[in-house]
Amino acid sequence: MGTKSALRHRANSGPDEGREGDGSGRFGRIARSPMGWMLTGMVGVAVVSGLTATGPGLVPVLGAAAAVAVYCYVMRRVARRSIPEMARSGAGRQVLLGGAIGLGFILVSALLITAFGGYSFTWAGDGVMSVVWRTIALQIGAAVTEELLFRGLALQALEQLWGSRAAIVITSLFFGVAHLGAEGANAWSGLAIALEAGALLGVAFLWRRSIWFVVGLHFAWNTTEQLLGIPVSGHAPEGLFNVDVHGSALLTGGDFGLEASIMPVLIGVAIAVTMLVRAHRNGDIKPRRRAGR
Fold it and tell me: pTM score, two decimals?
């Protein structure tokens, strides 16, 4: 559609239209550049997230659907690129695979912290179904919008400019910085998030090249934490359990929660390295683009 429109424009433009189209063309080229479509998409998805993320009932889920629509529109109409990362074929399998990894990652981390005396759990009591459904709705919204922002838009744009490795480093650092405003956050928690979440989710995307895979991983991660009653990136949840914390913050994560514990950092880095090796073998690590190309 974009090619046909461009051909018609060239065929029909006269001297005046050429002058008017020059500004439009310049704006179009800026918008179609990696930084252009990245910023356009991030603004759109962020606005949707800001309006729906903490809404009641199914509002976060509807917000996630709207964010996907914004992402697809920006990629197709602004960036003028295909979106294989959003392919419907196999999407369910990708979500389930990512979800299984995210679930196992948090359960093993929590089990190790508990085994070393850091956590003890007691059943919270009433409202099981309401807590579960509320958690699911909130975490669908969070997982979808954050993955569209950081992996769908930022990582892919920066990868196109500077290659996969630079894109992983930059998006991981920004992911850590984005969590510094949370309760109990400090320099260590920011670094921990950058390593275990930013790097892990970024490399996971490079390995599978699927937004659905990283959404499943992110969703299962956050949902499991919240249902266990463990703070999710500093946000104290309404979960199915109450958690008593004992011992050093390096083991337990302190007020920030499990993600600032050394346990998930070590496990997350190990998983990320494994995924990076597989992505490299698959030829999915893009080199830095040389000047003039």
Answer: 0.89
